[in-house]
Every structure is written in structure tokens, then in C-alpha cells.
Amino acid sequence: PKMVEVQSQQFQINSNNGKPLFTVDEKEVVVGTDKLRVTGPEGALFEHSVETPLVRADPFQDLRLESPTRSLSMDAPRGVHIQAHAGKIEALSQMDIVLHSSDGMLVLDAETVCLPKLVQGTWGPSGSSQRLYEICVCPDGKLYLSVAGVGTTCQENSHICL
After folding, report:
1. Where is the secretion signal located (predicted)?
2. Which of 9, 136, 141, 152 is the most exposed place for a label (fewest CB within 10 A)?
3. How do residues 130-146 score in pLDDT, each as one tens digit?
4. Which among 34, 77, 71 has a CA at the least distance from the CA of 54?
């Protein structure tokens, strides 16, 4: 009384104008609407991969992509673009966050780049084997390390930027 069971090679639901909205066969399930909305409080759970041209939250709602026990990867042959028109983007991890570009550069394009938990070095005794470095920035934005001195050593090593 509370369930409908269908045994068939294919099951299909069409709209009033005959457009397939939902189709099921042994190999795949196709949702043919312009938008798929998942309204459950726990979101959607996918046991394997998901392929979609767009993932978006409702206006003024947060979008979270989460993998509590495994990894989360986004792959695209022409790049992955993440954008927040309003608000911020956060990447949180219990372990490392690695940004890697195998054939390009990493660009941090912002008014301010903060490293709030970067430990500040202290001077040890003269001749100490402890090497301290400062991070220097070229006019084009390229970063390089310079062996720290009493004052900044970036100016004297600026030939690296050329």
C-alpha cells in the first residue's frame, strides 16, 4: 500500500509536452530537467563519481563540497574554476592543502596576502648553522627566498628578478 514496484527493461516519466523527465534502465538513470534540486537537509550523497557542468547553491545559501572520510577531487581537462561573487571561499583540511601546477604558475592575486601563523625567526649566535630566510617579491609578483640578514636582503638580491 505504500510502495510502487515496477519490473521492466526501462521506466520513463515524460512532461506534458512529451519531453523525457526521468528515465531508468539497467545501465543509467537520466534526469532530463533543466535543474535538479536536492532539498534534503543532509544534501546529496554520491558513492562514486559525479559529472556535471555546474554545481551551485541557492542564493544566500552556502555551497559545501565535503568528503568526510576520503578525498575530494575536481578534474577537468580545461581547468576548474571556483568563484564566489559575494562572500569568501574556504578550503579547510585536517592535513595538508597542496596547490600544484605541473605546467604553469601559482598566482596569488589579492590586495593583501596574509600568513598569520608564519613563525618569525630569531637570531642565534654568530656562526650558527641555523639558516633564516626572508621571502622577497619581484615587481612582477615572483617570490624568492633570500638568506636573512640584520636588515632586509631583498634589495641586494633583486638581480634575481631580472
Report:
1. none
2. 9
3. 567 788 888 887 888 88
4. 34
The Cα–Cα gap between 158 and 162 comes to 8
The residues near 139 (Cβ < 8 Å, ≥ 6 apart) are 161
- pTM summary value: 0.53
Evaluate whether 53 touches 59 at the Cβ level (below 8 Å).
Answer: no
| Alpha-carbon gap, residue 46 to 142, rounded angstroms | 40
pLDDT tens, 151-160? 788 888 778 8
Residue 121 confidence (pLDDT): 61
Q: In the structure grid, which three cell numbers stand for residue 161, read together?
A: 628578478
